[in-house]
Amino acid sequence: MEEDLYSIGAKYYDGAYQNNPNLNDAPFYLDLARRYGGPVLEIACGTGRILLEIAREGIEISGIDSSGDQLAILNSKLLTEPERTRNLVKTFRDDMRTFSLDRKFCLVIIPFRPMQHMYTIEDQISALNAAKAHLLPDGILAFDVFYPNYTMLLQPLGEEMFEVEWRPVPDKPESVMRRYFRRTKVDFLHQYFDGEFIYRTFEGDRLIKEERAPLKLGYYTYPHLLLLFRHCGLEVVEQYGDFTGEPIDICKEMIFLLRSATSQPAP
């Protein structure tokens, strides 16, 4: 995973995603945490967008992430939370493929597509096995990936696409941050694409600063995922096509709740 992506992107992550109307996954994962209870483990917790929502609900949660920059932002946010919330949270810097914590969890979540940073079969299997190893006997693993948009993937490379804008300094209304994305490569055989985020800071119409962060994302087909689950000894409990519970064949998202194939459902 590219550290440059996280060192630059970490600074702007909350601005880009905090008020994004198209990002509606947090209520889904919060509801799962209420439903299955703690302790919860969030893999690739980032700056705590979902982790903090669960902790504020009074549910114990641990988070791991490979990015020290992202975790530093999360830990700084925790300092502003009530002591009761802070005491429910533990954070660890580690790799989602190889981490090993000395406990197991009722619910393990991997929200907002970290599995799409697993580019090889070996990495995908390692990540799923590491998550599975931290499940209690009746525990649930939940994660989401996007359904590949082949129309988008077939579009010409190199074109900038505007994605989102926000005000980085609330008391400076003339200052605006805009994020763009540019795809530079699509590998249909190995199912990934390369690109870059472009962050531009404007004051009025004047460009003040530009920063670029590389992005590489893998994508999955549904049969591919089912084979991974079978190989890793996981079985599907529930599956959805979006975060409102629509059927998976609507082809927007692919959202799975999994358990160990040797587990028995909770009474």
Mean pLDDT: 93
Return the domain count.
Answer: 2
Strand order of the largest sheet: 3-2-1-4-5-11-10
At the fourth level of CATH, the homologous superfamily of the largest domain is: Vaccinia Virus protein VP39
Shape: globular
- Write down the secondary-structure element order: HHEHEHHEEHEHEEEEHEE
N-C termini distance:
40 Å
Beta-strand percentage? 25-35%
CATH-level-2 architecture of the largest domain? 3-Layer(aba) Sandwich
Structural class: alpha/beta
Q: Main sheet, how many strands, which sense, barrel?
A: 7 strands, mixed
Helix coverage percent = 25-40%
Rg: 19 Å
Please tell me about this protein's structure:
- The chain has 267 residues and is α/β, with parallel strands linked by helices.
- It folds into two domains: 3-147 and 221-260, Vaccinia Virus protein VP39 (Rossmann fold), CATH 3.40.50; 150-218.
- The protein has eight helices and eleven strands.
- It has helices at 3-17, 26-36, 51-56, 68-78, 83-86, 121-132, 150-153, 222-231, and strands at residues 40-43, 61-65, 89-93, 105-110, 135-146, 160-166, 175-187, 192-203, 206-218, 234-240, 253-260.
- Strands 3-2-1-4-5-11-10 form a seven-stranded mixed sheet, sandwiched between helices. Strands 6-7-8-9 form a four-stranded antiparallel sheet, covered by helices on one side.
- Strand 8 (192-203) and strand 9 form a beta hairpin.
